[in-house]
Amino acid sequence: MTSNISEIDLQTQLASGGKTELILKNPIMVGSGTFSNGVELSKRFDIDKLGAVVSKGTTLRPRLGNPIPRTVETAAGMLNSIGFQNVGLSAVVNDYAPRWEKWNTPVIVNIMGENFSEYIELVEALDGIPGIAGVEVNISCPNVEAGGLEFGQDPQLAGKLIKAIRSSVQLPILVKLTPSVADPRIVAESVAKAGADALTIFNTIPGMAIDIDKRRPTLGAVFGGLSGPAIKPVALRHVFLVSREMDIPIVASGGVVSGTDVIEFIMAGASAVQVGTATFVKPDAAWQILAELVAWCDSNEVSSLSEIHGAAK
Ligand SMILES: Cc1cc2nc3c(=O)[nH]c(=O)nc-3n(C[C@H](O)[C@H](O)[C@H](O)COP(=O)(O)O)c2cc1C
Prior knowledge:
The protein is an alpha/beta fold.
């Protein structure tokens, strides 16, 4: 017998308690920067079937991004150096949020500030806006206040930032961690203590490519972030390490291209996953992955994701 999606309990919770509740109908989210702000693909596919949409990284003011080329394919993924090309805070609040409000799927706004006060200004402007269900704080960007250190690599700074954000807003707060640390548990613990509701593990891994004909780096910005299937085993290890020690919802991001990838991440302790690079290969990848997840649950007689959550720990 084949179950349909409504017969399997796919619901997952990323934030709980009072005003900051965030419950997804299923664990399939789309990752920041790989789905634009969702409007284009919502015209072709049923957006309401997704667990959640994460916006493009949003900065205070619009940004044009880095010099081209900004993407290059690799053996099992891609490198990108988009450089935060985005429409800026005011367009997100005034043009996008009213459209998102009509969707029956939550939209989480991914934000990137250059310093403390920019992050606070961003979250305060987004708090309480209909159509915005949460923020995902990207802490893997250069930080001018700390002399070029990345927020995401400095547990004290990261904790201080999330504490300040927590005390400024009611919105659910996801914190997107960097893969560029020896032990992901240290920053994870610091931001969880500071009041993060959930952790997104993780962002792209720094890398580069060289054009041998031109004898130069391929990307205009020289370095980029590696994503796609190549990084999945690394993301899986980070999710596993953090979830074994901490009781906080984890959103896995890194190389999800199939239903079995989702099962692996859930068994490692993730509560949800983000589909990123896979969308560049197939625009409806997230929907296909959801269908594969349902089919797997069906053939393995799993009636609720709670039966397999953290099973491999
Ligand atoms: C073209 C591109 C743009 C991205 N832009 C952002 C961004 O603006 N903010 C962010 O936090 N992550 C951004 N990411 C990272 C993705 O959200 C995701 O974390 C990463 O690609 C790993 O997942 P994947 O292997 O499924 O792509 C971007 C990734 C790609 C490929």
